Model the fold of this input.
Amino acid sequence: MTTANDVLSALQSAFPGAIEEAKVDPERQLWATIKPDRIVDVCKYLRDNHNFDHYSGAAGVDRIDEGLFEVTELLASHGAHQVVALLKVKTPRDNPSVKSLTGLYWNANWYEREIWEMLGINFEGHPELYPLLLSDELMGAWPWRKDYKGYPDYNTAERAIEKVNPEGYTDYSFTPTEAEIKAGTVPFERPKYPTFREREEMEIKGESEMILHMGPQHAVVPGPFLLDILVDGERVKKAFLDVGYIHKGIEKIMENRTYTQGIPITDRLCYMAALTNNEAYCGAVERLLGIEAPERAQYIRMILEELSRIQSHFLGTAEFLTLIASAVYSPFLYMIIDREDVLSCIESVTGARINHSFVRFGGVRNDLPEGFKDMTLDTLKMIRQKTEEYKELFSSDSIYQKRMEGVGVLSPSDARRLGVSGPPLRASDTPFDMRREDPYLLYKDMDFEVITRKEGDSKARVEVRLDEILESCYIIEQCLDQIPSGPIMAEGVPKRIKPEPGEAYYRVEDHRGEMGFFVVSDGSEKPVKVKARGPVYAYFQALPPLLEGVYIADVVAIAGSMDACTSEVDR
Amino acid sequence: MVLKNLKMTLKRSMSGVEVTRLYPEKIMDLPDAERGVHVLDIRKCIGCGACARICPNDCIELVPYARGNPLKNKKQQYPQVDYGRCMFCGLCVDDCPASCLTMSKVFEIAGWNRDDIVYSPEDIAVGMYTDQELAELAEEARKAEEEKKRKAAEAAKAKKAKAAKAKAAEEGEKGSGEKSAKNKAE
Done:
């Protein structure tokens, strides 16, 4: 098995002088600062020789005191080994520029675009540096920079100037005042790029082609996002995604809150996955603080996260059924009824049905109440029985089979290249699960199977979810049997959380895939940078290539089978 | 296939799972851990403001409260919660050093105005002092105050007396000095 030290020594011998500083901390994580001109070579070497075929994301950090920007590339492997490489590249704050990795990893595209629009770091060789999450007015303001002064309040419509454009639409514009220009809150120079509309209209080649809009407000999308499909007849030729309609700036908000105040905010990434988001964030901060939760607390976290996985998969499958045809509405309601019982189990511990804010640094908020074991075992029995019923129902229904089989097939190599994780990746015959890959909590002691399917189509993705519900039931039963008594909070957790300067990355298996938190501390009460690497961001990025060449009617079946959440994409 | 599915539907409809609740009349059982409206133990609160500092949404404000313990500092303030902002995360409860702030199962707090859902210490307090207790405590406080005043007065008196004595002694010395000088002159 390759270890982080092996990779480090191989890198040092292959690129003498290119690695400025490096450390292995903790085991399985390799941190290295690479010279800016060698980053592409180093990544290519790691990808080709050491199986680093999973590009997990990138985080940009503004080191205003040192006059530097840092871009940290997160590389991992699809099961060949468990090492995570976090490669740092530094670039000066004036005229920042980093080499793009889009030539090596297809899915680096969106991560680099986001860093460009938020921090203003140019990525050399990036094919399409267009804004992703920000609106056009904010472009050029670089809101993630530490010296960003905020944007003038345009919410009062008094200052809006109406203007009718040549196409007959009314546009509203705002002229900045002298004071605002003086204060530097209004961007002077905006980067030049074609708008989303111009970009998609450029692709129209013939008379028979047209663009069909799905969204931002559409009955079949799980939140506001724009999915435009360029159709020729009934076939989709190309798909375009526009996200950012509910961009909340959660990462920037967390920079302005103390570490503890960040916990409830991580819930709001996606309320379905509130517990795993808590876990990922608290795990990263625990690494910074160098503390570990006591055993009982880790068991409680595992029980609740698996319960949360069950309810999320139920709702994901239920929503998917309403999307493919409104005729199958009864299974949707059945699953919602079953899910309520799971939520009651979670609520009896956390005190909330969604948005739990339950995990704390070094432990959990509450202990399990009396009678929790019996209640949960009853619920699990019911869940098992119901899930078996659904599986039987799906496998025996010929209409469902015909509608789903062979729709949106993602081959294993494509799934890895597009960077998806979680059930869609496992449905494509890749046993990639963080609980096995990067064992957190006490999952290494648990006996469970990583569910995979060979087909890679929409049907397989739903089957993986249903089978994972059964597997989660099994894990919870083991936890309830093995849970020891003891404290639920670690000793010596300071009241005021002030970690030592440093960085930490912690990833967990969300219900939808790999969820990671990258937290940078400078020794103060507030984090310098929090980067949430969500699984749905990767799903969305993979949608356009997946939709090419399918029928219009299948678009919904494919997009729905991904179990997406726009809130987490936009953050 | 159709029959099988139909059988499942029938089974579900016969299973007797309670789905619809007659909500205002019948409220579901809430667990003890439920995070609803705060409860403030007014006798334990030390007015430190830890809850207000930790609150991510700034919804807790410390305000003066007339019915607090008169034995304590008169300027002590108590938390007031603005439920228009509160997200019921429970961080304030975790951070309370006196364990006086908890959360109840009450969740029906809708109001007609924004002011209606700003809960003053009086609205969330439990264990409030009765009028009699307050009167007794006030009496105690008055007594304590009087005692303090009396002691202060005594101390002042003693100090004054001491000062006067010292002055007198000094004066006496001075006086005798003068006298002796006078005597000499004479």
Summary: The two ends of chain A are 36 Å apart (CA to CA). The longest strand of chain A covers residues 54-63. The mean pLDDT of chain A is 84. Chain A touches chain B at residues 257-258, 260-261, 263-265, 267, 330, 334, 337, 347-352, 355, 357, 360, 365-366, 369, 389, 393, 396-398, 495 (CB under 8 Å).
